[in-house]
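Fold this sequence, please.
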Amino acid sequence: MPVLVEPDTPTVTSLLKAMPPGSHGVSTTDRMRAWLDQHPDEYVVVLGPDLELDDALKIAEDLRTSKPTVSVVLVVTALDTQVLTRAMKAGARDVVQADDIGAISEAIKQAHQLFVALRGPSGAKSVGRVVTVFSPKGGVGKTTMAVNLSLALCEGGARKVCLVDLDLAFGDVAITMQLFPTHSIEQAIGSEDSLDFPMLEGLLTRHQDSMMVLAAPPHPDIRERVTPVLVSRILRTLKEGFDYVVVDTAPSFDDQVLTALDETDECVIVATLDVPTLKNVKVALETLEMLNIASGHRHLLLNRADDAVGIGSDKVEAILGMPVAASVSTSIDVAAATNAGTPIVTDQPQHGASSAIVRLASTLAGEPVSAPVSDDDAQQDEPAEKGRRMFRRKKESSS
């Protein structure tokens, strides 16, 4: 999956159209390096035109020695002999103009051919994992947890994550993230036998934190037309292009949810500390056990967990017969962040709720996951980085 480094969102959208299906866009070089650490089989890095040229050339020079199988394609606004010469010396495989879509596609194609020659045809193939977030009872904060967990797994672009809203009648993922999808799962209806990744990718909505969303239908009556076969095909197809496919489900065991659970690698069960919810969760766990779904890969997430209600984690574990994997305490900050369209994990990465969700993400990923960087932190870092760039330019001009 080629990775594009470009800070300007409209330019990301434009350039990704010239790149192969499944290509990933990140806004900073730090996120690009995190992506490469997670994806040792990456074969090309595309550096966008809005990066500082000196920074782009430094990346090319670093990758030439640290990751020799990764080609660098430099996209520039205007191509001249001086830029071309400097880029080739730095180790860039190709330099193309931003408005030459055909040249960008051809450069990436040649990079893949080189990669196959060096690593073999199976080197670039990867299959993601499906994480299903489920609760048998509504109103427990399942969607809020699914959104935040997806953003935590994404880790600012280090991994490619798609969140699927499978609450087909009353899905709230899009509105929770303040997205306005032009397409939804509705446009995939009837394509059970023809659905492929490029087609499905065209139905996704991009979130600013490099995460993609497959939105629920806009009207509840469409739910019955989404067949279990289509759900299975969608999840299996998304696994071809994403590291993680997170599924937010309806609070029921309908055919579509059961199909998603059948495709699940890791299942997160969300509960709150009230007797009706715990009773329903216990029945749900017994059902999952009977169907042999995600055996050994179930994770209990307690939301709004406060001992003051009279039921503690130890009592929950005794009732449900499984350990608590994560506990998120009640906080007005979580609701405020959700209402503002900035989920708590990205709005306040150091918040207790964020830390609990990031720890759960680490458990699911099987490796440490770093807390996302908040917008405020990024803005504080930006002037310092600009200062360093200005210092470098002054130093170069005086030498």
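Residues 3-119 form a domain with the Rossmann fold fold (CATH 3.40.50.2300). The longest strand covers residues 71-76.
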